[in-house]
């Protein structure tokens, strides 16, 4: 039995489709929906480490990350408000974390005992090339997740 659904959101059009599909399922099954966003760690290029102020670079890295997180939280709040107006979903919340997207999604699934994950397919191709067309994050999560993964195209 499904008691919660998580949908990953990277701000793309395909994520919007995944959110739409996940909200349909959550609404029909009367279960909570969680929007999940992972901010990739912003690495420091080797060229910046040599001869530059590492502390200043770290401050800039964190500032950029915080701005990205603030933007995503605004997006999430807009989505949540829209879903509350347009559906009867019992509970919608968002969660934002930092790290390697596939790893953080898998950790979130396990830690929160998620029953189903809804994700957008990373790439859009036709024909035989479609076989390898999943994005690397979607592919890894679908292969390693302990729960079912619904991939939206």
Explain what you see.
The chain is α/β, with parallel strands linked by helices and 153 residues long. It has five helices and five strands, in the order E-H-E-H-H-E-H-E-H-E. The protein has helices at 13-29, 46-49, 54-86, 101-111, 136-144; strands spanning 5-8, 33-39, 92-98, 116-120, 149-152. It has a five-stranded parallel β-sheet with strand order 3-2-1-4-5, sandwiched between helices. Strand 4 (116-120), helix 5 (136-144) and strand 5 form a beta-alpha-beta unit. The two termini are 25 Å apart. The model has no long low-confidence stretch (mean pLDDT 87).
- Can you tell me the overall shape? globular
Largest beta sheet: strand ordering: 3-2-1-4-5
Counting copies of identical and different chains, the oligomeric state is: single chain
- End-to-end gap: 25 Å
Q: Report the β-strand fraction as a percent range.
A: 15-25%
Low-confidence stretches: none
Radius of gyration: 17 Å
Total beta strand runs: 5
Helix and strand sequence: EHEHHEHEHE
Question: Key features?
Answer:
alpha/beta; globular; 153 residues; five-stranded parallel β-sheet
Topology:
Blueprint: E1 5-8, H1 13-29, E2 33-39, H2 46-49, H3 54-86, E3 92-98, H4 101-111, E4 116-120, H5 136-144, E5 149-152
Parallel strand pairs: 1-2, 1-4, 2-3, 4-5
Helix pairs in contact: 4-5
